[in-house]
Amino acid sequence: MRAYLEESNQDLLYQIAVVQELLGKTSVCGELTPYVGQIIQICEELRRQAQRNLTDLGYGLDDTLNDILAATQSVTNFFEVVNTRLAAPVVRARPEDRLGLLVLRFLHDSHPKTASLPFGLSDGSFAIYPTDKIPPIYLVPTSRQTTLLYLPLLFHEFGHLLYARHRTELDELVKDFQTVVAATLAPKSVRSRAGASRSSSFRRQVVTAWYGWAQEFYCDSVGMTIGGPCFLKAFSHFFRTRSNDQYYVPRDQQLQGRHPVTWLRIRMLADRARKHGMHTLADGVQEAWAKTAQVLGVQEDYEGTWAEDFFLPLRQMLDDMIEESQPYVHRPEDVTVVESATFTPVQLCNLAWQKFETASPTYRSWERTAIESFLKSN
Amino acid sequence: MSQEWLNIQSFFTDHGLLGAINDLSIAIKQEAAGVHDAERERRAKDARKLLKRFLGRLGEVESADSKELLLGVDARFQSLTDAIASARQDGNRYQSVLMKGGAVDALPLLDAKSTESRAQLLESLAELRRVIEQHQQTDAAVIFEDR
Fold first, then answer.
1. Per the CB < 8 Å rule, is A127 touching B19?
2. Which of A221, A251, A341, B138 is the least buried, fewest Cβ under 10 Å from its Cβ?
């Protein structure tokens, strides 16, 4: 066993060195430099842990072999994350990443709790890895990285990072909301023991599911707060015609999933939009979803995971969460954008949607020029 | 939008706990064998701190009425506490103080000095590690394979 463990840790040291060498050789744009530094540091910590395992093996204590095996597995698992996820933004880095990285730079700089955090960008479905153990990586589908319309969905992902940075306070607000959910779903009368047990189990599952769902609603609200119209339009377009399960999801699948049903998210987003004075846009988006649902033959039904009694407390919770975490709030000049030499990412995305909606045939050529000009000015 | 974020967070929470268990277990065994290693001692101190926090939280969950709802925790943490509760019901495979008496009984073992208590702590840590390793595998499967 001792020999196997020595071999495994020596191999780990070698693999870590290979990644370290790759990271050291790669040339990246300035926005990614702090991220590279942090990944190199993580590699160094993993190298030390593998070295530590070898030191422990060197003491020759047989009763520690199971612990050293567990420690070896642990460092191997973490290294797997580095090798398959964390190194990717550096190793695959290309000049086209700058657009997404500049949007992320803007988002991180907009908040004191994220300004100093390095971040990476990689390929994948829109996502973020928000944990304090590794620098956040944002995943964006390839074509969406080099075009403007769907970059506002990064505002939602940034919300997950803000949540992680305000976890203690925001968890308390979610707890209060979960209490409302639990009270609303409590049975008014119990007819049989079996029925009571089923109902209690369902209630427990719904209350737990709402912990994750509340975070998704919060991230949507962050997106809306930061981007205004461009976020709502991007979100609605991205999901509206994607699949039937944006409108209806069977109860068991809802409870296993991490996201609330998208149609419900649209309803809350429209409510947030009205709060920002965007009544026409909110009405238009809700109407578009209702019409699409009609064509799909889907009725609005959340199968008991949603009750109208949740609406006001959910709205209040989202207001309180936004107040607590203080994301950037879009300004009038971010929404009604006039052509100029320099734009913020929020202005650029709002302008992109205006152009897309009013001058669709010429949109692509406008977008190319706008991106070039944005990259040059930053 | 991907659902991976919760699995990533859970993966690293478990990683931290496993690291603490490994560090403390190795340190206790080395100390018993007369090995003096300053880094190990430092790691054991950090590990005790983290495990006290975790067992304290677990103790709260365990002391709550089974019908009471667990608020402010994500589905993955709840599944970890559920896995520990299941292990506690499985007396054939889990027989440590932690599994028999719960987190409240295991907490004092972290600072205990007697040989017997140390042995009980080591057994508790080993069984807790088994449960957490299984739990982490679920997250690892999502992170590494579900793409």
1. no
2. A341
